[in-house]
Amino acid sequence: MTTTLSRSPRRRTVIALAVVLIVLIAFVVRLVDIQVVNAREHVDDSLAMGLQNSRTEYASRGAIVDENGVTLASSVHRYDVEIDPHLAVQGVADRSGDDVDATRTWPEIAAQIAAITGQDAAAVEKIVTDAVAENPDSQWAQITKDVSTEQYRALAELGLPFLSFPPQAGRVYPDGAVGGNLIGFVGSDGQALAGLELADNDCLSSQNGKVVYQRGRDGVVLPGTEVETEPAVDGGTLKLTIDRDLQWYMGQLIAEQVQNTGSLRGTITVVEAKTGKVRALAEYPTVDPNDPTSTPAADRGSNAFSSPFEPGSTFKALTAAIGLDSGSFTTDTTVTASSRETLGGDARVSDSFSHPANNYTLTGVLIDSSNVGISKFGEKIPRDTRYDYLQKFGLGTPSAIGFPGESGGILHPADKWDDQTFYNTTFGQGLSVTVPQLVGAYQTIANGGVRMPLSLVESCTAADGTVTDVPSAEGQRVVSADTASKVSLMLENVATQGTLASQVAVPGYRVAIKTGTGEKTDPDTGAYKPDAYFTTMIGFAPADDPQYIVAVNLDEPRTVKSSAATAPAFQKALTQVLKNYRVIPSGTTTPELPKFG
Question: In the prediction, which pLDDT does 137 show?
Answer without folding.
Answer: 83
